[in-house]
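Re: that chain you flagged

S.,

Sorry for the slow reply, it's been a week of failed gels. I finally had a moment to sit down with the sequence you sent. For the record, here it is as I used it:
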Amino acid sequence: MAYIGRQLDAGNYLKLDDISSQFNGSTVRFNLTSGGNPYYPGSPFSILVSLGGVIQEPSSAYEIDENQIIFAAAPQSTDDFFCISLGVALGVGVPADGSVTFAKLAPSARGVGIQSGGVNIGVGVTQLNFIGFGNTFAYNSSTNSIDVSISGNAGAGGTFSANAVGVHTTKILGINTTTIAGAANSEGAIQAVGNIALVDGAILTDQNIDSNLFIPSGKNGLVIGPVTVGLGITIDVATGSVLVVV
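Prediction finished late last night. Pasting the structure tokens below so you have them in one place:
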């Protein structure tokens, strides 16, 4: 006959020891054992009891007190007995440290996911650290995201040392430069060392050259004169290059 009712989630069927040898027509309380050891059913409904070939009704024909069964009517000496436990409780141990993998956690328990351009960053990241003054972040409940605000002192190459440092103009400004490598006079589409100003149609430069000037090979230089070269300052023009003073 198939099992009737809610299926067992854990444990296994277990046949308890036969106690029919103790039946005498007057005793109603008996110890339940399994393999000679005391057995403690969870409730009257966790065992199936047959007495004299008749299945007994839990809480009506018998009750459970710790490891004892108490019959409503004393079994007769001629009655046979069997009892089946309908599930043995299994103890769930505490997982060892570091034994639970990320895949076993529910999405809501996995913490903050960090991505850059849709690509996951880092494994097991547990902390976000925003470096620099003026950086703030706030949780946006409408989008379920973290909004990061970076102060105006920061630029693409790092953080400026003061608000007065950087690019400031009321005119349209276009800058196209490759990564700076080496000296400022060697690479890049636009690089500046010293004071240079573009004011509408005029280029303004210093009248003093106070740092060594080198025109590398394959480059031409332009100086707007007159200029004064500082004491100990050298102007070096590579072979094949040209320095023009206008």
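What I noticed first: Residues 138 and 144 are 11 Å apart (CA to CA).

Talk soon,
D.
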